[in-house]
Amino acid sequence: MAMQLRNTWRLQRTALLWLLLAVACLHIQAQVLGDVFIYTNNYTFDPFPDLPADFGPEVPDEGIDGLLRVADPEDACSPFTFSDTSQTWVALISRSQQLHPTNCTFDVKVRYAEAAGAAAAIVYDDVYEALIIMSKPRDHPEPGIPAVFVSEKAGIIMRRLLTPGQSRVRIVPVSGSAWMSLVMSAFLGFLALTVVLAAFYVMRSWSGWLGRGRYGRRGPQELGGGPGYGGVAQQPIPAGLPACAIRALPVMRGVLGAVS
């Protein structure tokens, strides 16, 4: 019985691990809502996942393509030291969330990039963490250009690959087919989650039934009061010796005297 309970507990732990894995997969699928491509005339690098900001216009269906330029200052919490409206370019901005008197909110960074002539803004994280959705205070005005958020790793890679005047970037939203893929992935994840929960419930019910069957109420056959195994009638097990049998037992007087 102990071995069966241990096996049941192992199965339950395995089911719980699969449950956590399914939830993690759904969370990862929900995080990716667009891609950022960096490329040169000769090579296109693998895309970086991004999350669009909760303010400003959305990234158009056709995407945004332009030169990639690092913001100056890098955190874009003050007006840029340069301005360019002659060509389409995208500002690469550092989040810079360390405590500092000049720190600012995401929308302020994007509005300074817009004032410098940028067509869009890419804000990269400065710590290793999951992607977040950039938001702004309610009383702040809406920026007029799209903005997306990428990871610290993506920002570091883009900065190292950037060649001034040559490196370009393309920001694309999730296409219709990609949305369908996300929906199907979410549905399959939900289906797997349901199967895991059902298996967990069945195993828990089975272990409870097994415990009740072994240690719960026993019928007369198990107690020896009815036909036992092999078709042989078993006599009930007496609860104790009768009074006459107890009186017939020998008395050890020496032991009793020593004890008294």
Automatic annotation (TrEMBL):
This is PA domain-containing protein. SUPFAM superfamilies: PA domain. Gene3D superfamilies: 3.50.30.30. The chain crosses the membrane at residues 178-202. Keywords: Glycoprotein, Membrane, Signal, Transmembrane, Transmembrane helix. Residues 72-155 form the PA domain. InterPro entries: PA_dom_sf, PA_domain. It comes from Tetradesmus obliquus. Residues 1-30 form the signal peptide. Pfam families: PA.
